[in-house]
């Protein structure tokens, strides 16, 4: 039997958090859950949202369309995004170049810096202090879909935001275009921040961007973020490793190497009952993944959990044994972003709905 829950996030706007008197803080536990929560919109920067349009509207001055209404969201796909944004992007480059030249007294000014910044799984309070400082000092920020709206509120008023997010079947920018944008603005002397959900170097393609820029002579600094595996596991009280239960943890991508339906080309080695498996981007290929794990010897009663929009106010969890896992997720209707954790450590969570020999049943089955 599966357990599906909604839980609240204890996030608050970081601007308010920074101004709060520390003596008034009350301790909270991320394991105090409620089963219902009301939330009107996604905490993330979905590609059709009114919030995204309002943040990026400086790019569309040449043609000033009205922001989409809620009823129009699904059809508000700007297929000519890049063409319509080019004039304002070029204008911004000119402004930055003039600013750099005026600041150089006859000398040769070098390029600006690029920061690859991890913003964590969604809760803005999981940002590092260094990430906040860099975000607030940037000239231009290129951000992904899984950067939360609360994080974007930290951006300085005079900084520019540019959406470069990707979803299945829709890439607002190709990876090559993102490379060129980072390079062009860094060469113009700008401080450029590349905002990524989670950690930039864990399934975030940060390594590709770093390698490209370094080959062009651009200095790149990586500011790590709390990857979804750590942040979400902590939120649920799941230790990714635990003495006598799991001796290692392995991060996998649910995307097939060649775009097919077989996500787990390392299944034979990954089906280890003493290893915790964390699967990113694995909703679509989970049925194949789960079956292959069982075919290669992982017990069918292995505990598992899928977490939608982890650490945010819209978090939902589906707990189930591996044999029922794909069916229960489909019944719950989970959507991206969803993280999957498979392994015996899952039953150590206070939310695990089954009584077992290895863990006390702290939450009764529903």
Automatic annotation (TrEMBL):
<keyword id="KW-0489">Methyltransferase</keyword>
<dbReference type="Pfam" id="PF00590">
    <property type="entry name" value="TP_methylase"/>
</dbReference>
<dbReference type="InterPro" id="IPR000878">
    <property type="entry name" value="4pyrrol_Mease"/>
</dbReference>
<dbReference type="InterPro" id="IPR006366">
    <property type="entry name" value="CobA/CysG_C"/>
</dbReference>
<dbReference type="InterPro" id="IPR014776">
    <property type="entry name" value="4pyrrole_Mease_sub2"/>
</dbReference>
<dbReference type="GO" id="GO:0004851">
    <property type="term" value="F:uroporphyrin-III C-methyltransferase activity"/>
</dbReference>
<keyword id="KW-0627">Porphyrin biosynthesis</keyword>
<dbReference type="InterPro" id="IPR035996">
    <property type="entry name" value="4pyrrol_Methylase_sf"/>
</dbReference>
<comment type="similarity">
    <text>Belongs to the precorrin methyltransferase family.</text>
</comment>
<dbReference type="InterPro" id="IPR003043">
    <property type="entry name" value="Uropor_MeTrfase_CS"/>
</dbReference>
<dbReference type="GO" id="GO:0032259">
    <property type="term" value="P:methylation"/>
</dbReference>
<feature type="domain" description="Tetrapyrrole methylase">
    <location>
        <begin position="114"/>
        <end position="324"/>
    </location>
</feature>
<keyword id="KW-0949">S-adenosyl-L-methionine</keyword>
<keyword id="KW-0808">Transferase</keyword>
<dbReference type="GO" id="GO:0019354">
    <property type="term" value="P:siroheme biosynthetic process"/>
</dbReference>
<dbReference type="InterPro" id="IPR014777">
    <property type="entry name" value="4pyrrole_Mease_sub1"/>
</dbReference>
<protein>
    <recommendedName>
        <fullName>uroporphyrinogen-III C-methyltransferase</fullName>
        <ecNumber>2.1.1.107</ecNumber>
    </recommendedName>
</protein>
<dbReference type="InterPro" id="IPR050161">
    <property type="entry name" value="Siro_Cobalamin_biosynth"/>
</dbReference>
């Amino acid at each position: 039997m599966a357990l599906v829950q909604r839980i609240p996030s204890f996030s608050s706007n970081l601007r308010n958090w920074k101004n709060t008197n520390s003596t008034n803080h009350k301790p909270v536990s991320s394991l105090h859950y409620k089963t219902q929560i009301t939330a009107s919109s996604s905490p993330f920067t979905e590609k059709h949202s009114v919030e995204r349009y309002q943040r990026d509207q400086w790019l569309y001055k040449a043609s000033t369309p009205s922001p989409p209404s809620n009823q129009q969201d699904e059809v508000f796909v700007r297929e000519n995004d890049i063409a319509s944004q080019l004039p304002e992007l070029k204008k911004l480059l000119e402004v930055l170049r003039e600013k750099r030249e005026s600041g150089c007294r006859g000398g040769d000014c070098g390029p600006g810096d690029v920061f690859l910044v991890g913003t964590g799984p969604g809760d803005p309070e999981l940002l590092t202090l260094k990430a906040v400082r860099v975000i607030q000092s940037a000239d231009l920020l290129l951000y992904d879909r899984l950067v939360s709206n609360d994080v974007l509120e930290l951006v300085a008023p005079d900084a520019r935001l540019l959406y470069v997010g990707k979803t299945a079947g829709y890439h607002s920018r190709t990876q090559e275009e993102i490379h060129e944008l980072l390079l062009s603005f860094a060469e113009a002397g700008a401080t450029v921040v590349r905002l990524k959900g989670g950690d930039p170097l864990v399934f975030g393609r940060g390594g590709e961007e770093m390698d490209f820029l370094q080959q062009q002579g651009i200095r790149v600094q990586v500011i790590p973020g709390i990857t979804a595996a750590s942040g979400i596991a902590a939120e649920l009280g799941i230790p990714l490793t635990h003495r006598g239960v799991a001796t290692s943890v392995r991060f996998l991508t649910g995307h097939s190497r060649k775009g097919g339906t077989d996500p787990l080309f390392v299944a034979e080695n990954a089906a280890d009952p003493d290893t915790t498996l964390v699967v990113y981007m694995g909703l679509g290929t989970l049925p194949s993944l789960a079956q292959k794990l069982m075919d290669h010897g992982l017990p069918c009663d292995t505990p598992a959990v899928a977490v939608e929009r982890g650490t945010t106010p819209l978090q939902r969890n589906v707990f189930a044994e591996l044999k029922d896992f794909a069916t229960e997720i489909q019944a719950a209707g989970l959507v991206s972003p969803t993280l999957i954790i498979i392994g015996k450590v899952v039953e150590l969570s206070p939310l695990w709905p089954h009584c077992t020999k290895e863990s006390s049943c702290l939450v009764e089955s529903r």
